[in-house]
């Protein structure tokens, strides 16, 4: 079953066309990688799924994006509810300048969960799910900005899963991290895919092969090829895909 | 090779000394002024001077009512100007898109900052004292000072809010927070150290202002009880003591108390801001 279906998506910023006729189906509880050279529209694409691009002036969109069959740009859709269902982890870890605890509790508070016991329970569970609990359980009241980069990124993942989304979008979540932290995040992605649908933008093709079941290759705002990850990397059907994965450009 | 009068090394040294001297002179000017005022002021400075009422128009006695007046006008100015200035800064930094209204607000704030304080004083007299009927009172004085503190608070708050990384806002919005929740729960707490500094700068300007309140606050020698009572804040008292030839000695005593109050406020708030910032940053 597909969680997200995108039909003929075109995105413009003012006069510049960023995405061209993007069609993709993202199945439930799997990891889908988006690869492609810088500036090919991958980030713009995932930011369209939680409507983060709405904030940018000059953003125009045509086509449809369905989440569980519901068109997310329909006027009846509440952006706040959408973003509760579609969480996002950013390229650079961006914890708030608050305590570790308050970072994870933030989304809960915003969504009206104030019962202290429930909040504490959810914070603990989320930190455990994000494989961070053991490292921070003694310093929940300390500022999150004192954590290492890798810990901060796992905290951002914990913050996202605390509000129990259905989809987690990850925009190059490891690009600012060292290899050990990267491994930890990748292990975490493997664990999380049982419960969440994950869409990850990555520049690292090995990472795509390690974590994802499906991969789409973006080039100049178009999806050149989408396939099961091993098929895409072992037998690319399109010449451009082959050139990219063999390192002939990008 | 081109001819050089001095070798780069010597040149380097000379420039370093030039900058060092500029720094030292700046600090010396400050120290000399503060030192001179404190030195002259210490002749009359005592607990009795601080905690008793003036006798014979200020030729003797103390300045307790003036300290209370100063606290009144400064607090009123802060209470009025801080929410207004921070509110305008939030609007500009978070809600507005660059357009004529933004330019107008910025232009307004800059103009407000450059109006001479005596003109504020005249406006205070005709608007607060007479038109609004607030009379000569610490309230009228505080409101005039609020106008004077407003541009400083606004400008510093706007810069602080602008300096909050965009990634905090994105992180908050991506969790389903609304714009207002993002501003209130993430942006403002992160900008608090800067905003506090701005408010203190604005209030420090207010506490040391005489000309602006000259026509608004009256010149009563009694302790103001309600905000509608007239008062005589420290700088005004100092001005009257000096210009009316009442007592130069006591004028310096008053100046010393003002300098000490401003120093205490600055040191205490800097310390608080530092601590808060360290807590935010996890150091």
Describe what you observe in this structure.
- The complex is a heterodimer of chains A (about 250) and B (about 280).
- By secondary structure, chain A is of the alpha/beta class.
- Chain A is built from ten helices and ten strands.
- Chain A has helices spanning about 40-50, 80-85, 100-110, 115-130, 135, 150-160, 180-190, 205-210, 230-235, 240-245, and strands at about 1-15, 15-25, 30-35, 60-65, 70, 85-90, 165-170, 195-200, 215-220, 220-230.
- A six-stranded mixed beta sheet of chain A has the order 6-7-8-3-9-10, sandwiched between helices. Chain A has a four-stranded antiparallel beta sheet with strand order 2-1-4-5, with helices on one face.
- In chain A, strand 4 and strand 5 (about 70) form a beta hairpin.
- Chain A is globular, with a radius of gyration of 18 Å.
- The mean pLDDT of chain A is about 90.
- Chain B has about 280 residues and is an all-alpha fold.
- Chain B folds into two domains: about 5-40; about 45-280, MetI-like fold.
- Chain B is built from ten helices and two strands.
- Chain B has a two-stranded antiparallel ribbon.
- In chain B, helix 4 packs across helix 6 (about 140-160) and helix 7 (about 165-175) packs antiparallel against helix 8.
- Chain B starts with 7 loop residues before the first helix and ends with a helix.
- The model of chain B has no long low-confidence stretch (mean pLDDT about 90).
- Classes of the chains: A alpha/beta (about 250), B mainly alpha (about 280).
- The interface of A and B includes residues 87 and 156 of A.
């Amino acid at each position: 079953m597909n969680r997200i279906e995108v039909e003929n998506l075109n995105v413009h910023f003012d006069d510049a066309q960023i995405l061209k006729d993007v069609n993709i189906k993202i199945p439930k509880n799997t990891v889908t990688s988006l690869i492609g050279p810088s500036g090919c529209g991958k980030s713009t694409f995932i930011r369209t799924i939680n409507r983060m691009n709405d904030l940018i002036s000059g953003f125009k969109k045509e086509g449809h994006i369905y989440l569980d069959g519901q068109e997310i740009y329909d006027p009846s859709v509440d952006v706040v509810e959408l973003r509760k269902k579609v969480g996002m982890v950013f390229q650079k870890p961006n914890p708030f300048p608050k305590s570790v605890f308050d970072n994870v509790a933030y989304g809960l508070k915003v969504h009206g969960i104030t019962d202290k016991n429930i909040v504490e329970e959810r914070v603990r569970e989320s930190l455990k799910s994000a494989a961070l609990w053991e490292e921070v359980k003694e310093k929940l009241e300390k500022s999150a900005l004192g954590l290492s980069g890798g810990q901060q990124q796992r905290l951002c993942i914990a913050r996202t899963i605390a509000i129990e989304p259905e989809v987690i979008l990850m925009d190059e979540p490891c690009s600012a991290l060292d290899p050990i932290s990267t491994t930890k995040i990748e292990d975490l992605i493997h664990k999380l895919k049982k419960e969440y649908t994950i869409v990850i933008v990555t520049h690292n093709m090995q990472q795509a092969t390690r974590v994802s079941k499906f991969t789409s290759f973006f080039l100049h705002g178009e999806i050149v090829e989408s396939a099961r990850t091993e098929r895409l990397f072992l037998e690319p059907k399109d010449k451009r895909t082959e050139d990219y994965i063999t390192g002939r450009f990008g | 090779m081109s001819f050089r009068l001095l070798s780069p090394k010597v040149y380097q040294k000379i420039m370093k000394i030039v900058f060092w001297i500029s720094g030292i002179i700046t600090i010396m000017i400050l120290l000399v002024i503060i030192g001179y005022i404190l030195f002259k002021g210490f002749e009359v400075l005592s607990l009795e001077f601080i905690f008793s009422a003036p006798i014979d128009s200020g030729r003797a006695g103390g300045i307790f009512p003036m300290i209370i007046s100063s606290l009144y006008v400064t607090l009123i100015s802060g209470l009025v100007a801080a929410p207004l200035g921070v509110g305008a800064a939030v609007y500009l930094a978070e809600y507005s898109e660059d357009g004529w209204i933004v330019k107008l607000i910025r232009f307004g704030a800059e103009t407000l900052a450059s109006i001479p304080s005596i003109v504020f004083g005249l406006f205070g007299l005709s608007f607060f004292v007479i038109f609004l009927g607030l009379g000569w009172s610490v309230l009228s004085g505080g409101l005039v000072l609020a106008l004077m503190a407003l541009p400083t608070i606004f400008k510093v708050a706007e810069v602080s809010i602008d300096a909050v990384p965009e990634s905090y806002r994105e992180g908050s919005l991506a969790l389903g927070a609304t714009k207002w929740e993002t501003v209130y729960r993430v942006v403002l707490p992160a900008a608090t150290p800067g905003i506090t500094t701005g408010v203190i700068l604005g209030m420090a300007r207010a506490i040391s202002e005489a000309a602006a309140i000259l026509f608004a606050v009256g010149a009563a020698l009694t302790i103001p009880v309600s905000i509608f009572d007239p008062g005589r804040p420290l700088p005004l008292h100092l001005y009257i003591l000096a210009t009316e030839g009442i007592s130069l000695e006591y004028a310096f005593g008053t100046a010393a108390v003002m300098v000490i109050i401003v120093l205490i406020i600055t040191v205490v708030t800097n310390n608080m801001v530092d601590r808060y910032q360290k807590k935010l940053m996890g150091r």
